Protein 1
Amino acid sequence: MIITTDTIIRRLGILPGIRIAIVKKLMHLPSSIKQIFVDDIGIVSLPRSIGVSRYENIEYARIIAKKYIKGLTYGDLNIAIIDASSGFDIGVAIALLEDINRNIEMLANKKIRLIIMTPSINDKDAVLARLCSFLKIIFMYDIYLNTLSEGVFTYTFIDRDNPVQLFRVMTEFYQSVEQPSSAVIYELKRYYLPVKDMIVLMNSINERAKLETTLLSMKMDLAILNTLLDKAQPELWDYVKNKKWNVKGLIHKIRKGYEKIVSVDNAIVKTISENMSRLKYTELLVDPKNIIELLLQGIPYKRIHEHLLEEMDLERILTDEKLLPLTSIIIPGNEEAEHLVLASSSFMSTLEKYRELIQIYELETLEDELIKLKMKKASICEPCGDQKYSKIHRRIIDAHNRLSVTLYENIIPSEIRIGNTVIYGEDLVKCKLINYNAWKKLGVEKQNYCPILYDKLKEAGI
Amino acid sequence: MCVYFYVKRTVLWWIVVRVETSFSRLFTPGVSIVLRGVVYSGLLLVALLLCIVGNVYVGVKPFIIENMLVSLGYSGELSLVITCLFVFGVVLVAFLVLTSRYGLVMGYIRSTIISSIIFLLTILGITWYRAVRVEGVGLGDAIATVFLVSFLVLLAILDRKYPYVAVAIDTSKLSKEYLVTVKVYGNTSLFVLEIIPVNSFEIRGPFKTIYANYYELRYMAGKKSSIIMKYKDVELGRIIISELEPLLKQIVFRAYVNDDDVGVYEYSVELTKTLDVASEPIIRAVSAKIGIEPEQIREVLFFDSNGASLDPKIYIKDLDTDEVHVKIYFTEPYMEILKYYRKESIISLWDKLMKRIEIYGDLIDDLSEKLDKAVVRLANLSVNWW
């Protein structure tokens, strides 16, 4: 089951496999998506921020969303995609986690994955501070849930500045692949074979030409009719008067046809001039001109793939270590990176022999592309000061620390329930950022970093 | 080269003509033909005399053919006669060939030179024979050889630099008959007449006469014109004609395109123009007005106001009407289709065309829908490029 929020849908569009969308405003979603509409009930006594929408307040969103998502049934694999720069999304995520925490017995074999769209580092201080407190909360659940049963709760950080398509790819990837621990994606490179694009482009040009000739012929026929009427004897006039002839409709049709031609021209120009010069993370496997040549020779679609794949040096591509760095709020530490190749089904038969070389996964939604990823385990320990741990960008923690006490209630929920224990907001502030992967490695000094949680966990007998 | 200016002014009751000729005297018939002819003929005579003297008094046989005949056993006198006949034959053939190429007069001059060269070479032969066969070479022989060789070289240079052409210009008929005659003695294929502006004179010719070829330049339009004469890129001279006051005639041109009246144009035309040249601006204007290329025009016909057909080459001064109907015909692209339906009745043709239009309409709907989809698909492609 994949859950997302309207913030994500607005930004990324409908991602593959989304089943439930939690929205704050009614949206037009496809009927396959269940829409949970979180209404602003307008309770005055609940905490509210000054000058911003109430939903930007974590606490408000959490309390309201909690009521609306009550009774949500979970599948074996639950993926939630949220935008951590939106207060509403954070509130919903916390509400979801609390809901799951409440039904913890039901969750025996079920896994929860969060794909977190982190804000960019240049965002406002309030947003970054909110992110910090959110991280603290999910790290607590991380420690708690994974201590109960390892691998139950994982999350992946993808920066907001990174290409939108990466979210699509990762959403699908997590549906099909077991992910043992939380991760940061920090490097990427994509190889693309633009066969489909060229076919679409050529078809468009072809149909445009057909329409143009049709319009021209029609205009000529109209001109002939005109001359006929001009020159003909009165009997033709009588004949034509009896038959109804809608000239205005025809002229409207011609005008519409020419408008279509202009719109297609613009689209073609845009495709060629904008798209094809905009490649940032992608390397084209073949020059589009070659594909057009093959298409013009009349080679069938499937044979083109075979033909092109034969010529390609896939081994070089797979062993190529130089990937393109992604922007990330979480700076990878020294841990060993995991190399992945996500490929479309058209590449799979050719890639089969390289399985020993690198991890290869087939993703159905991909089309003629091959994505190389570098992922690192997200083991975050803010206070450790050790190179081997990933670091959170300093600015986030600074922003969090700089906030005045009066604003705390805007960005930190008053209380959260972890297991049977309650942790109050004020205690949460004192906690340091440390997640399960780091926690696991620490020894006795655990309690120094988040004494409250440590105590509570101890109380709970874990 | 010596250049002189020749100014002639003729005034008649309606035309003023001023003709200036800047022309090298070397190419006037007087110098180029008469003087040159006399000099070359004299040269030939001297060469011939020298040859005869060499043969008769010195006793050498300069022509190899004569020696060959003697060694074959013919008597000396017979060999001499045969040799003379042979040499005469060669000279005659050269004369005939050059005459057909350069014209009678110039051909004669050219063949005179060639004959002179033959005889002079013969004298060289005599001198050489004496130097080899008879012991010792006299001072006179050496001088003769040096003189002869330098003379031949001089002849060759002169032959190259002084083209075999003479030009005579007659402008006396210009004021009355608008005619300039240019008489060319020499090879006309190398002779070029350039007229600036191009349309001011119409060139006719060359017409051949026995002595020379001549061009007729007929005045067409403009107030000023210059005629440049060139021979093998060498400018021979130019005739500058100014102060021409052409007589004009007001003519009404009524233009029709494919039998549709497209307008009336009235303006003055020089009497010296032909009808097709005079109506050229109208044809261009009309084709620009209705948006067709001048190349698309298939046929242009001229009629007078009574409907009688006019010859396009008729001169305006010979035209006895003030109104000309210019009928321009071209094929409209869509008219081509009518060929196929020519035998149908007009109503069935109408029905067929209506059916065609209906089908085209449906096609346009289909294709527009497809293009809408194509636009969406093209927009979706942008997802692939990141």
Note: Chain A has three domains: 2-182+380-459, 195-274, 301-376.
Protein 2
Amino acid sequence: MMGETLSDFFSTHLPIFPVLLPLLTAIALLLIGDSGGEASHGGPLLRWRRLVSLTSATLGAALAWALLLQADYGPLTVYALGGWQAPFGIVLVVDRLSALMLALTWTIAVPVLCYATAGWDTHGRYFHALFHFQLMGLSGAFVTGDLFNLFVFFEVLLISSYVLLLHGQGRQRFKAGLHYVILNLVASALFLIGLALIYGITGTLNMADLALRIAQLGPQEAVLLKAGAMLLLVVFGLKAAIVPLYLWLPGTYAAASAPVAALFAVMTKVGVYSIIRVHAVMLGDGASHAALAAAPWLLPIALLTTVLSVLGALAARSLARLVAYLTVASVGVILAGVGLFTPAGLSAALYYTVHSTLVIAALFLLVELVASQRGDAEDRLQPASPVAQPVLLGLMTLLGAASVAGLPPLPGFLGKVMILQSALGTPAQNWVWAVVLSAGFFTLIGLARAGSILFWGVLPPEPHTRRAGGGSSRRMLSATLGLLALSLALAVYASPLKRYTDAAAAQLANRAAYADAVLGPLGGAAADTTRPYRGGAGEVILPAPKNPP
Amino acid sequence: MSLEFLLSSGIGAVTATSIYLILRGRTWPVVLGLSLLGYAVNLFIFAMGRLWRDAAPILSAAGRLADPVPQALVLTAIVIGFATTGFVIELALRTRHETGSDHVDGHEPAPTPGPSETRDGA
């Protein structure tokens, strides 16, 4: 009896747990306190912080996977915050796409946190608390079904990312941090303008309700709505780093500390997720005047992003910048899949998202492992003294690089093949094939150049510049290996994952079922908001109260 | 002149000023510009609930009412804007301390364009 009630409670409130858990953990970590610096190294409080942080992250990963299994089972999970019915209250909606992104985020968070506990968390204060606030923002952005709530969670994840970026401090980080913060504050302002425009036209901010209302707009209102939607595309494009808004990313990610950069690999995907949610799904209804406002732009931008970022990768002078440019290139390839605006393209893009996020997070950790063994040269692409573990690090770099470039049989290859296949027969077929294939080729050249300089272009070791110990700590190595193994496992489990992303794309295309599940008893298309914003000279009449069925 | 004209031209003027300030090279004008942009955006959100006179602020039994949602949105936006402004001021001060310059690029611009030693690879 008791167990039944508990499991009922668990399954009802499951969608809110990935948001609440990191929030409570972060508050607990703030209460535990962090006097910072090496003074507390090995002290009892540090051990407690690490224990709480890692336990909570593992628990969060378990919750995210539980949601994934629940979403895989079929129906949407809708959670009305405070019991307020949509569209009046804020709802959290977990569909297959949200669950996939949640599972991806938390699966990356655990090894990255493990890596950070090997030393990075003592290089500044409150690393663990900020990390969990960031996880809260990411989780919230993925589960929310309300556009304004998406803005709020964007702010939560951004504010913690501002401080995480500065973690460890230093001149480069402050310089990159100032640019990053100012750009994102301007983007937040644009986000609000776009939201206000959309609200002004439709009178709602609930995503399901918006999709229905957008379909009913007349041609003149649709123009204003398109303006709002395109402003949102600019904002999401800045987060995802697409042309011409990617210039901030390489410097910023290269300046961030390794675990933070690895977590930031998920952050660009929040932009991609929002573009899918808003531009491919909410505005995806072919019947409305504002349908697919982003369609003429997204695919060309995505392909141009891929081309320019691969050129950037070829010109990069440090390994961190190279990986940062590969992050941008991966976003370009993903959005090329999304930009086809077909379920097949979306499914392929989701598969590639999972793979590229995992492998890029692993590469960011690897960059630091390599850099820490090269003495004063760090990660600059110039001959230097040899690394202490050439075989292990070389093999890891080779695996990661081959997967990013898309060599068979690694999952990067499968992801690109899926995107190429979904482009077959569309008008953009030639462009997509040419850009994705040549991008893979040039990525390979760039990585081969970097790898040969790092591992073969060695100078005789200078004894006074060698660091003590030589090899990297076992925890750092195993965390990086874990992430790499996860990304390689995607090749083995490609079939179930592809089935899942196919189902996710099909679920996104079924807008009627989404509206039904979210708006439910209020009757989907006929749901009233406080003000219809239509006709009359400003006289507002309350909607007639409906009797609930 | 109508209320709508006054409000929209006011928002336009504040936005234009803020864009000018954000494009300045020193951090202090940029911070001012960001705050001004925040004010303009807040007014814009408020205006998107339309301008009403003699209307109840919240739902009453019947009759005219002003839309409460934009007011709630503005409150949220103000709180977030306040916090981020505080953070960016602190960050600007710290960057000034760290780099010795209050230029947004972290170094004083060279009198003539040319390669500078602080500029990195890109």
Note: Chain B touches chain A through 44 residues (CB under 8 Å).
